[in-house]
Amino acid sequence: MAIPNSLARAARNAVETSALLRDAPRPVSQPKAQLRRYEVSSLLDNGDVAQTRHIAPALPMFEDAFCAFTRGSLVDTEDGPMAIEDLLPGDTVLTQDGSSQKVLWKGSVTLIPGREDSRGRTRPLTRIMADTFGMQKPLSGVITGPAARLLGTPAHLRHLNGGQPMLTPVHEFQDGMGVIETLPPTPVELFHICLPRHAVIRVDGLQFETYHPGVNAARMISQSLRSIYLNLFSHIESLSDFGPLLLPRAGDGEVDAITA
User: Fold this and answer.
1) Among candidates 136, 109, 137, which has minimal Cα distance to 123?
2) Mutual orientation of helices 223-230 and 5-23 as an angle, nearest 10°?
3) What are the two backbone dihedrals, phi and then psi, of residue 70, each rounded to the nearest 5 degrees?
4) Is the dihedral of CA 93, 95, 101, 107 positive or negative?
5) In this predicted model, what pLDDT tens digit does every residue of 58-83 receive, in sequence order?
6) pLDDT digits (tens, 9 = 90+) for 4-60
7) Where are the alpha helices (DSSP H) in 71-196?
8) Smallest Cα–Cα separation from 217: which of 196, 233, 200, 201?
9) pTM here?
10) Can you spell out the DSSP letters for 117-152?
11) Do residues 42 and 10 touch, judged by C-beta distance below 8 A?
């Protein structure tokens, strides 16, 4: 029986990721990149789900594709709320505009948020207490990963987009009371998902974005690492295949404009 092209590609990507990383040129003065294991589930053309494992750099652009939601986070789907760890490519999630989209890709990674990497960097999580943003927002206490973005604009960032709602990193909402930083010393499994189009979905009663690398992605990654990054996603061929951003995004004191 012939192997579907998409399945063959997903398997090939998992193998090529390690090979590309091994062969990628690295300046003598640059320290060796710390590596991380990334787990990927992809929807194939025939409706099956391919699960692959990748060894790739522990760099922000790579980790951000996996580090939005913790285990137990409840995603609104056509069949009701579903824990993120149980959600599979092919399942249909509800979006902010009332439509629905199929999950094409789900990634997961396990890391220790409180442990410093080779560059002295940690990956703090954010705990959001129940009802912080209004009644049942969130429904109960929820912990998000460092890459999660909420639809909303904290007061100190309103100058960035004329006070209009943006997709804002959750850590920007930290106030030491309803939204606080947490650095668990033990391993935590984190997840993220891709839909056919960038969207806002409801998770634990709050509005979060699905994964998109952002409009500045091409400037954030070298050509040698770009192939390794793209191999994590069997449903795209280039960065432009992620499509346009649904809404402006805040980050690093700037706003990512909506792509054309």
Assistant:
1) 109
2) 150
3) -90, 165
4) negative
5) 999 999 999 999 999 999 999 999 99
6) 555 556 556 665 665 555 555 554 445 566 899 999 999 999 999 999 999 999 999
7) none
8) 233
9) 0.85
10) -TTS----EEEE-TTTTSTTSSSS-EEE-TT-EEES
11) yes
